[in-house]
């Protein structure tokens, strides 16, 4: 088991689980505003599940890299798409503002 600190909660999951699925299953507000309704349901194309992650997760793959290279994200971003991330160790997750979570203002942190 690994621990995820997110939005004031500490939740656990199996190593290798999909981050988006774990967060939604635990009622974490992964999406900002209407993005909770208008999103690609985890296929990696909308970019609205973007978060900042501290800790060990899977490497960036082509689909995620491609989406994060398109505005409003940018190739220089440190954000990850929760739907494309496997949790590999204990992590902390932070969400930023904007429809895609691309902003610079924090919406919530791990605590
Ligand atoms: S849910 Fe659409 S990119 Fe992650």
TrEMBL record:
Cofactor(s) in the UniProt record: [2Fe-2S] cluster
SUPFAM superfamilies: 2Fe-2S ferredoxin-like
This protein's UniProt keywords: 2Fe-2S, Iron, Iron-sulfur, Metal-binding
Domain of life: Bacteria
CDD domains xrefs: fer2
Transmembrane regions: none
Family of the protein in this entry: Belongs to the adrenodoxin/putidaredoxin family.
PANTHER family: FERREDOXIN-2, MITOCHONDRIAL (PTHR23426:SF65), FERREDOXIN/ADRENODOXIN (PTHR23426)
Protein name, per record: 2Fe-2S iron-sulfur cluster-binding protein
